């Protein structure tokens, strides 16, 4: 190399490079190599993360980085979030059960258990399919209940609802599409008995159930599409790990200020408990 035969000052002058740049590169290279490795490992663990969420995840792991730097290195490393895929339809709205109006279209959602949103998706096994029903709290993005079934009958959604109500306070509103699984009398009766208002997206307007649709998309992209399930029991175990642990306690959400659902709900409840205590003392 040139610097082995000539002084560093002469070599830098010849190349038109400041001496500080030479020393900076020598110091920067190892740190950047470690950062690139961290980006690679984090992107492998969260393959659908774009540079914004990847940056926030790296910060949680102790890296002092900004989005521009992470974006630049991701481009150099040819890393990008996995592209979205359309889901197979699981909704059958051809039934004679009552329909309900959309109550959440313009609603301001400001607290946990104000609105739950529900949806269904299919899961491919080594042979055949199973079906997943999920219920999400819209404010915290937390999963309140879920069930994996072998068929699309009403017990699929009914079991998910019963599990949700057994662990959490009943919501003010339950929102879904107009599928027969949500409109069936057995399902709506449980909601009415719990004094829950029933809300449904208009027929053919899937975007009106967008909260649940996005949850399903996340589950498919970050768990289902990256896994192979041998049978029902294998799928139940792996999906349970993702839904009850990874999604709730490890996956950060940009809509929650890059907190996990568990962190966001805990912070909200702590803040509002303190505020309530203060109001009571003043009164």
Can you walk through the features of this model?
The chain has 283 residues and is α/β, with parallel strands linked by helices. The chain contains 11 helices and 5 strands. A 5-stranded mixed beta sheet has the order 3-2-1-4-5, with helices on both faces. A hairpin with a 5-residue loop joins strand 2 (129-137) and strand 3. The longest helix has 27 residues, at 19-45. The mean pLDDT is 85.
Query: What is the succession of H and E elements?
Result: HHHHHEEEHEHHEHHH
Radius of gyration, whole Å: 25 Å
**What is the molecular shape?**
elongated
Number of strands: 5
Low-pLDDT ranges: none
Query: Can you give the helix content as a percent range?
Result: 40-55%
Estimate what percentage of residues fall within beta strands.
5-15%
- The mean pLDDT is 85
Q: Measure the end-to-end span.
A: 78 Å
Structural class: alpha/beta
Output the strand order for the largest sheet: 3-2-1-4-5
- Number of helical segments with 4 or more residues: 11
Oligomer: single chain
Largest pleated sheet: 5 strands, mixed
Protein topology:
Layout: H1 2-5, H2 8-15, H3 19-45, H4 51-60, H5 67-76, E1 115-124, E2 129-137, E3 143-149, H6 155-167, E4 173-176, H7 180-183, H8 185-193, E5 197-200, H9 210-222, H10 232-250, H11 261-282
Parallel strand pairs: 1-4, 4-5
Antiparallel strand pairs: 1-2, 2-3
Helix pairs in contact: 4-5
Give the key terms.
single chain, five-stranded mixed beta sheet, alpha/beta, 283 residues
Concise summary:
By secondary structure, the protein is of the alpha/beta class. It contains 11 helices and 5 strands.
């Amino acid at each position: 190399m040139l610097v082995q035969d000539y002084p560093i000052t002469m070599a830098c002058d010849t190349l038109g490079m400041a001496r500080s740049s030479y020393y900076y590169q020598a110091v920067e290279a190892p740190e950047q190599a470690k950062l690139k490795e961290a980006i690679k490992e984090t992107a492998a663990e969260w393959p659908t993360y774009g540079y914004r969420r990847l940056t926030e995840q790296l910060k949680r792991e102790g890296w002092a980085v900004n989005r521009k730097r992470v974006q630049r290195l991701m481009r150099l490393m040819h890393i990008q979030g996995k592209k979205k895929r359309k889901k197979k339809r699981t909704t059958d709205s051809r039934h004679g059960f009552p329909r309900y109006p959309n109550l959440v279209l313009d609603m301001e959602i400001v607290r946990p258990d104000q609105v739950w949103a529900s949806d269904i998706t299919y899961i491919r096994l080594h042979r055949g399919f199973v079906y997943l029903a999920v219920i999400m709290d819209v404010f915290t993005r937390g999963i309140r209940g879920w069930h994996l079934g072998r068929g699309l009958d009403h017990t699929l959604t009914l079991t998910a609802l019963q599990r949700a109500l057994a662990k959490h306070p009943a919501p003010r509103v339950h929102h879904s599409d107009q599928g027969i699984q949500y409109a069936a009398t057995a399902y709506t009766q449980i909601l009415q008995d719990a004094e829950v208002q029933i809300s449904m997206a208009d027929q053919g307007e899937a975007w009106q159930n967008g909260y649940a649709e996005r949850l399903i998309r996340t589950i498919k992209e970050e768990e289902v599409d990256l896994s192979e399930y041998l049978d029902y029991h294998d799928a139940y175990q792996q999906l349970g790990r993702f839904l009850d642990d990874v999604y709730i306690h490890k996956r950060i959400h940009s809509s929650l200020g890059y907190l996990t659902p568990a962190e966001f709900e805990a912070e909200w409840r702590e803040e509002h408990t303190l505020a309530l205590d203060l109001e009571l003392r003043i009164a």
